[in-house]
Fold this protein.
Amino acid sequence: QLQLVESGGGLVQAGGSLRLSCAASGRTLNVYTLGWFRQAPGKEREFVACINWNGANTSYADSVKGRFTVSRDHAKNTMYLQTNSLKPEDTAVYYCAKSRLYGTTCYRAIGEYDTWGKGTLVTVSS
């Protein structure tokens, strides 16, 4: 059974960087679109970034565009999110997810994903 495990979160000062990872076990992710979402305390889960199966198609939320970069490594069955110039408003639990359908395109809607990790906490201090 497919499992997704996020890692790389932590406490960082504003302006700092973190590299989040999403590692899969039990099944290859190579044919699926993968997404990053986040949920801040008291707020709904929101889209952050996505990448299609071969990395040719990516999409970002306006709030992170130019600061975050999503990538994937098929050999390691892993997706990454490089987060730079972090702001206090980036504080949230970050989740990775696998698309329901084969990943020819990038999906921004939560409903397009059917498998989720348990999340990794990113805290940005001012």
